[in-house]
Write a structure and sequence with these properties.
The complex is a heterodimer of chains A (334) and B (609).
Chain A lengths: L21 H15 L6 E5 L14 E4 L5 H11 L4 E7 H7 L1 H10 L3 E7 L2 E2 L5 E2 L23 H7 L4 E6 L3 H13 L4 E6 L11 H4 L1 H7 E4 L6 E2 L5 E6 L2 E6 L21 H8 L7 E8 L5 H15 L5 H6 L4 E3 L1
Parallel strand pairs in A: 1-2, 1-3, 3-4, 4-8, 7-8, 9-13
Antiparallel strand pairs in A: 5-6, 7-13, 10-11, 11-12
Helix pairs in contact in A: 1-6, 3-4
Chain B lengths: L5 E4 L1 E9 L4 H14 L3 E7 L14 E9 L9 E6 L2 H7 L3 E10 L5 H6 L7 H4 L6 E5 L1 H7 L7 H4 L1 H12 L4 H12 L3 H21 L5 E4 L7 E7 H16 L3 E5 L6 H8 L7 E4 L3 H13 L3 E6 L1 H17 L3 E7 L16 H6 L8 E4 L5 H16 L2 E7 H5 L1 E5 L27 E2 L4 E2 L12 E3 L14 H16 L11 E2 L5 E6 L3 H13 L5 E5 L1 E3 L5 H7 L2 E6 L4 H9 L6 E4 L8 H11 L1
Parallel strand pairs in B: 1-8, 2-5, 5-6, 6-7, 10-11, 10-12, 12-13, 13-15, 14-15, 21-22, 21-24, 24-25
Antiparallel strand pairs in B: 2-4, 3-4, 9-16, 14-23, 17-18, 20-22
Helix pairs in contact in B: 1-7, 1-8, 7-9, 8-9, 10-11, 10-15, 12-13, 18-21
The chains are: A alpha/beta (334), B alpha/beta (609).
Chain lengths: 334, 609
């Protein structure tokens, strides 16, 4: 069966602000789903609370807009109850990393086969502009009029800290790349986290411009491809090289660096250390990494649940409550 | 030949007590099973300390297991006819639960001076110090005798003291030792060397009584005639778990449980986690909130979905339950109540979560609230919880409590065929044309259930208010009012689908006692005692609280005086005041973490007559 993008759209009026980055994410998702060849009725999109979490209403699939922070738990329940469904979670930095932080890390730790779209705009939009757990230290907002005095979370660090197996990063506006990453995330068995660098046009407009504006993007970001050299820059002559245990940027042909010195990206290594280093590159001295940073196979929770049941069934013969009760400490009175 | 003195008794209460590491729960439960097997009715009450292992011999570390055996047994009893006290602390803690002529079995080897000091005795005669002047004492050198029963390993002797005590109690109750042995073997499943030692120890306990204590009368307990069938001993938590499994079979829905460990509810999760051969999925979630939300997700996907907890956990699940109310999806929540507020007394029982179950959520958030009245009744009520949740697409809160959750009774294994089918209100092709998520059956106001995976019914629901005609998000004022009312009316209409309330006792009495939940056995015993004094009293004991059975108001209005008995400060009484116009009642509120004191209650009832 083949599907069109329009099969995944519905007639619900979209209520995000004009210019919101979420429109791009929604289009990427519609596009990815049309390619995935999964029937809309076999897809479930779950969300928590916040601007990002309105997304399920704009999908012509099954959808459940739940409560603040708990989307990951609800999505876990859906997937474990019926592993045949394709389950997606739309969430934001506040929903997922503040009030829902616990469910986020435990879902990743279990490796439930769901795809998490983490829309990170470093701000609370729907409550009208408070700082979020990913806002930079010193960020001034309505609830931090003199600047925040706390360190932000870096989502990748939590994902890898929770032993996550799939982490990718993309830009809200880059529909072409985003939809490709979403397709890869769907194919990955286990929890996939895709961090969207999202612009909030009202409360945090241009926050990422230093890195992702058209004039800066080529020098401040790198798109990682599995099996390829980590090269970037306007002239495509910069590369990521090892400097002791650290990463640094080298210009090929300068200071004795050749193309051979540039690292090759391997998204499949089990050891998470290099993936973490790549994921933490922030567009300052090192370019912000986009693309699939980590993509490792591991045991998948919802599959293991079913496997364990099948295994136990081979060792025990009881199939009904009555079978089971009669096999226990029972006496007859007649 | 010894002269045989046997007292024929209807009921006897035995309390096993010792350090929490002494294995009192084990021998207590074996003794209960044995008694049930011999045709006695049984009701048990385990009494654990909160700490897993307090210092040996200390007062805070005493663990007890009480069982009443005989006929017309409704409760584990107030006071013990026979106390097994493995150390001075156990004697001290239980002194207040004794009759003046109770039999006390002690291990003489653990009543040394230092043992007495650990239990804060100031003299070397604990009985005198506790003013137990006329009790009958069997002071057996248990440790020493256990040692002499062992083939080799001496360390095992301390562990076998409970087995010796069990043998001694079997002698005292005239329970055949061979059958006790079988129950013991089944429970222990050890290698043959250990079993040999255990058999010797059990027999030594029995013989010790037989050979040395002919001055103490032994008891023979009347066996009662049970309904024919297969029986097993079951506690409330297990019965709850089995009721859920039965509902899964009768609804053809897979059973899914997500919970977080919490005393005294954890056993339900553990029981179901071990039943994978019956196709049950269980998840131990990262917290209480997650367990409710995971269960909600599983329910959205079409499983029979359950989350179990105790009071503090119910508080945490509140917002998620509200979501299930709003989204109108089935969810079974089981609250095994314990003393609160906050952490309270985790191992002690109370009925103080009623208001929380009824109203502990934001907004107008009606749910069904039902309660189980005894360990075996947990089976039926867990079944009912599932039936109402699935057929009416609503959260149902089942209240049990620590007392019935851990208490056990002999239970006749039910014939599942006699239970009704549970029919989910699935969407059908006929309604497809007009269908939207909140399209309802006007008879019971229940919407139709479309499960993900079903073609042609893709839809979005959630916590935001929806338009009653289209199910699109709506902030329309009148629409909200309409939806609030319809969510309430959906619950109210469930009254037509539950059994009418039964009256127990003297229907034409002036006084009606009203109870609910785990106090049933005590109230039954109280009205039996009243009846024996040639006085009249009636009882209604509620299984269904919200909605109330249709005839409750009518029953209540027939009586001149009402007494509501509950283990809280008056939560059911207040609920009834809010539901029944002009409702006036006396209250009996015992809130000390202990089962209702029947003697006190009977006095109170007599004052009202």
């Amino acid at each position: 069966m083949t599907y069109k993008v329009s099969d995944f759209k519905n007639s619900q009026q979209i209520c995000w602000c004009p210019g919101c980055g979420n429109y791009g994410i929604l289009s990427s998702l519609h596009k990815a789903m049309a390619t995935l060849e999964i029937a809309p009725h076999n897809i479930v999109v779950i969300s928590g609370i916040g601007c990002s979490s309105r997304l399920p209403y704009y999908m012509n699939t099954y959808g459940f807009h739940t409560i603040h922070g708990r989307g990951a738990a609800v999505a876990t329940g859906v997937k474990v109850a019926n592993p045949n469904l394709s389950v997606w979670l739309a969430t934001g930095d506040g929903d997922c990393l503040a009030i829902g932080g616990n469910h986020f890390i435990h879902t990743i730790r279990r490796n439930v086969d769901i795809n998490i779209l983490l829309m990170n705009n470093k701000i609370y939009g729907l409550t009208k502009g408070q700082y979020s757990p990913t806002s930079n230290r010193g960020f001034i907002s309505k609830s931090s009029p003199y600047g925040t005095i706390e360190n932000p979370f870096r989502p990748a660090e939590l994902v890898i800290g929770a032993r996550g197996c799939f982490f990718a990063r993309t830009l809200d506006s880059n529909i072409e790349n985003s939809s490709k990453l979403l397709i890869e995330a769907a194919h990955h068995k286990g929890t996939s986290v895709i961090e969207f660098i999202l612009n909030c046009v009202i409360f945090n407009n241009g926050i990422n411009n230093d890195i992702i504006s058209n004039s800066n993007r080529l020098n401040k970001t790198i798109f990682l491809h599995h099996g390829e050299k980590m090269i970037f820059g306007e002239k495509n002559n910069k590369g990521i090289v090892l400097d002791g245990f650290n990463l640094k940027v080298a210009t090929i042909g300068e200071n004795g660096y050749t193309l051979n010195d540039v690292l090759v990206h391997d998204e499949t290594t089990t050891d998470p250390n290099l993936h973490l280093k790549l994921a933490l590159m922030d567009g300052d001295e090192l370019p912000l990494a986009l693309g699939i940073i980590r993509n490792v196979e591991s045991q998948v929770y919802d599959i293991e649940v079913e496997k364990q049941i099948q295994k136990i069934k081979t060792t025990k013969t009881e199939r009904t409550l009555n079978d089971f009760l009669m096999s226990g400490d029972v006496w007859e009175i007649s | 030949m010894n002269e045989i003195k046997i007292k024929e008794l209807k009921n006897v209460v035995i309390r096993f007590s010792g350090d929490s590491g002494d294995g009192m729960q084990l021998v207590g439960s074996i003794f209960s099973n044995l008694s049930a097997y011999l045709g006695n009715e049984i009701t048990t009450l385990p009494d654990f300390p909160t700490e897993i292992r307090s210092p040996r011999g200390s007062l805070s570390g005493v663990s007890g297991y009480q069982v009443q055996i005989g006929s017309n047994v409704y409760t584990p009893g107030n006071k013990a006819n026979i106390l097994i006290a493995m150390n001075p602390a156990a004697l001290k803690v239980n002194a207040k639960f004794l009759y003046s002529d109770s039999v006390i079995i002690i291990d003489k080897d653990s009543f040394g001076l230092s043992d007495l000091q650990k239990a804060s005795f100031s003299t070397d005669n604990p009985f005198k110090e506790l003013e137990l002047n006329s009790v009958q004492i069997i002071a057996a050198p248990i440790l020493q005798m256990c040692r002499s029963c062992l083939k080799r390993d001496n360390k095992q002797a301390t562990k076998n003291r409970n087995i010796f005590a069990l043998g001694l109690v079997c002698w005292l109750l005239n329970h055949p030792i061979e059958i006790a042995e079988k129950f013991l073997y089944k429970k222990l499943k050890k290698n043959s060397d250990v079993l040999y030692d255990i058999k010797n120890t059990l027999l030594a306990g029995y013989n010790y009584g037989h050979n040395t204590h002919n001055s103490i009368a032994t008891y023979r307990i009347e066996a009662t005639s049970h309904k024919n069938g297969y029986y097993t001993n079951i506690d409330g938590n297990k019965a709850t778990a089995y009721g859920l499994i039965a509902a899964s079979e009768k609804s053809s829905l897979p059973l899914f449980l997500a919970s977080y460990p919490i005393t005294p509810a954890t056993d339900i999760m553990q029981e179901l986690a071990a039943r994978k051969e019956l196709n049950i999925k269980t998840m131990q979630a990262e917290d209480e909130i997650a367990s409710a939300c995971i269960a909600i997700g599983a329910s959205f996907a079409g499983n029979l979905s359950v989350t179990t907890t105790s009071g503090p956990g119910l508080a945490l699940k509140g917002e998620a339950i509200g979501l299930a109310v709003m989204a109108e999806i089935p969810l079974v929540i089981i609250d095994v109540q314990r003393c609160g507020p906050s952490t309270g007394l985790p191992t002690k029982s109370e009925q103080s979560d009623l208001m929380q179950a009824l109203y502990g959520r934001n907004g107008e958030s009606p749910v069904v609230v039902i309660s189980a009245v005894s360990p075996t009744n947990c089976f039926n009520m867990a079944f009912w919880a599932c039936k109402l949740a699935i057929e009416h697409l609503t959260p149902v809160i089942l209240l049990t409590d620590g007392y019935i959750a851990n208490g056990s009774s002999a239970w006749r294994i039910p014939n599942i065929d006699e239970y009704p089918n549970i029919k989910p209100p699935y969407v059908t092709e006929n309604i497809k044309k007009n269908w939207h998520p909140y399209y309802r059956n006007p008879v019971n106001d229940v919407r139709y259930w479309a499960l993900p995976g079903k073609e042609g019914f893709s839809h979005r629901i959630g916590g935001l208010e929806k338009n009653c005609n289209t199910s699109a998000i709506s902030i329309d004022a009148l629409n909200h009012q309409k939806m609030v009312k319809i969510r309430q009316s959906k619950i109210d209409k469930i009254a037509k689908y539950i059994p009418l309330q039964k009256i127990i006792g003297d229907i034409n009495a002036n006084l009606l006692i009203i109870g609910w939940g785990g106090t049933y056995g005590h109230l039954l015993e109280a009205i039996t005692q009243i009846h024996k004094s040639n006085l009249e009293v009636a009882l209604i004991h509620l299984n269904f609280i919200c909605p109330l059975p249709l005839n409750v108001e009518k029953i209540i209005n027939k009586y001149k005086k009402i007494l509501v008995v509950e283990q809280n400060l008056g939560q059911l009484a207040n609920y009834l005041r809010s539901k029944i116009n002009g409702f006036q009642t006396y209250q009996y509120n015992q809130i000390d973490g202990q089962p209702i004191n029947v003697t006190h209650l009977v006095e109170k009832i007599k004052q009202l007559l």
